[in-house]
Amino acid sequence: MTFDQLDEIQFHCEEAELARFASENGIVEVWRRQSAFIGFRSATGFRRFDFKSGDHWEAMFLPNGENTWEWRLGLDIHCDDSQLILVLPGHDIPNLAVVPGVMTGKQLSGGNGVGLSIAVKPLGRSHIGRGDPIARLAFIDSFSAVSFE
């Protein structure tokens, strides 16, 4: 799989104005994310990785904004509500940053049907092969987490 850095345009417009706005701004691919749209002036190619989930199709990659992508890995992790999952970059993948994050057991058991997701940020052309480590996951007991001020 190859990732390229893509210039995105985040915008708000009425649904009825979407086609005109995209045409006037040279946008060839548009994704709805909550109340906004994210557009690209060149095709991302990520739709070719869509997968069947039950009776419908889901996107494996979704633009998050700020040039990051949600990568739906399709695996489930089950843990107690008192545990946290810390997502950290795996091995160094040239030109691809894994965005660190924390998820709760409750978030992971939300039943979205698409499994665990991580956020990635392409910084240039990057290649990932089958079996390449992408991220590290660490389980943390949230009751033992300490806050420093």
What key phrases describe this protein's structure?
single chain; 149 residues; mainly beta; Deoxyuridine 5'-Triphosphate Nucleotidohydrolase, Chain A; 4-stranded antiparallel beta sheet; 3-stranded antiparallel beta sheet; 7% helix; 42% strand
Nearest-integer average pLDDT = 86
CATH topology: Deoxyuridine 5'-Triphosphate Nucleotidohydrolase, Chain A
- Class, according to the CATH hierarchy? Mainly Beta
Please give the domain count: 1
Which structural category do the helix and sheet elements fall into? mainly beta
In CATH, what is the homologous superfamily?
Deoxyuridine triphosphatase (dUTPase)
- The quaternary state of the protein chains shown equals single chain
Helical residues, percent? under 10%
Describe it.
This protein has 149 residues and is mainly β. It has one domain (2-144): Distorted Sandwich (Deoxyuridine 5'-Triphosphate Nucleotidohydrolase, Chain A). The chain is 7% helix and 42% strand. The chain is built from two helices and 14 strands; from the N terminus they run E-E-H-E-E-E-E-E-E-E-E-E-H-E-E-E. The strands form five sheets. Strands 7-8-12-10 form a four-stranded antiparallel β-sheet, with no helix packed on it. Strands 2-4-3 form a three-stranded antiparallel β-sheet, with no helix packed on it. The protein is globular, with a radius of gyration of 17 Å.
